[in-house]
Amino acid sequence: MESARNRDMRQKEPTLAWEKWTDLDRDSLYQLLQLRQRVLVVEQRSPYDDLDGHDEQAEHLLAWDSTAIVGCLRTHAPQETTASFGRLVVAPSHRRQGLARRMVKEALEYIYENYRGKSIEIEAQKYLTPFYSEFGFRTVGTPFDDCGVEHVKMVRTPADSAPRSQDVDLSRSKTQDMALTLTVFDGSYAICQLDPNQPMPSWATSGEWWSVTKTRDELSIVCAGDQVPTNVRNEFGWSLLKVKGPIAFALTGLLARLSTCLANGGVSAFALSTFDTDYLLVKTTDLRRAKKLLVEAGCSFVA
């Protein structure tokens, strides 16, 4: 049954609308350029030449939340054999809600309807390659620097078939396109449960890595297993895996796919997220099998 929270979020989804550059009024143009500058230049700390002379010939997809532009994307006038899109931006307030995915799907449908038969070429930030791989894009060539941000060229061919539903199906078990890099931490970790009113114990924060979550019902701590007193309720014997980040907030579904990959192989996992990336804990007795499953799914491991 759909929860009230999910229904509320669905009802408040931003509205997508295509606009020509010449049709934008003064306030809309200001909002659009302000959003792109805040994310592409300021947030990413890149001296980015955003106003590159291509906006007038592009079609602009805007995501409206009431009277505010909270997302944008533009499609480029097609070349002889290729079409393209870029400048995909989502406001921080609307990330991790599937908006970027909706916009890319809309762009693919637009290109299919207007430029049928053309391949689609994009220049993507390298850390977003798993996101675009979800839509059938593949990396071509080697990474390159664009104003301090590493990019790669990606191609989707052919563009003469409509976007498929599986292009955005997060529940699929196939994970060959993830291309994620993971690291396994040394040592053994424990997942502990304490009373929610208990003060933060000093032993929990003495290791290299620890995580704390406090709710009305419990104080949950993940930390090095050798730091946990014997009288503390805990599940011990876990290995810690880190996904190489940073991971874009717009990039949804990675933890679900990783967990599904492991679950299909009979390995249970405990997941955590930070601002930059995701972590998985698996039983140390299952670590070898977990690594094998993830490698078979397209992931790699580094020391």
What does it look like?
With 303 residues, this protein is an alpha+beta fold. It has 2 domains: 4-168, Gcn5-related N-acetyltransferase (GNAT) (Aminopeptidase); 181-302, 2-Layer Sandwich (VC0802-like). 22% of the residues lie in helices and 33% in strands. The protein has 6 helices and 15 strands. The chain has helices at residues 4-11, 26-43, 99-114, 129-133, 254-264, 287-296, and strands at 15-20, 59-65, 68-76, 82-90, 119-125, 138-146, 149-156, 181-184, 189-194, 211-214, 219-224, 234-243, 269-273, 278-283, 300-302. The strands form 2 sheets. Strands 8, 9, 10, 11, 12, 13, 14 and 15 form an 8-stranded mixed beta sheet that branches. A 7-stranded mixed beta sheet has the order 1-2-3-4-5-7-6, with helices on both faces. It is elongated.
Helix and strand layout, with pairings?
Layout: H1 4-11, E1 15-20, H2 26-43, E2 59-65, E3 68-76, E4 82-90, H3 99-114, E5 119-125, H4 129-133, E6 138-146, E7 149-156, E8 181-184, E9 189-194, E10 211-214, E11 219-224, E12 234-243, H5 254-264, E13 269-273, E14 278-283, H6 287-296, E15 300-302
Parallel strand pairs: 4-5, 8-15
Antiparallel strand pairs: 1-2, 2-3, 3-4, 5-7, 6-7, 8-12, 9-11, 9-12, 10-11, 12-14, 13-14
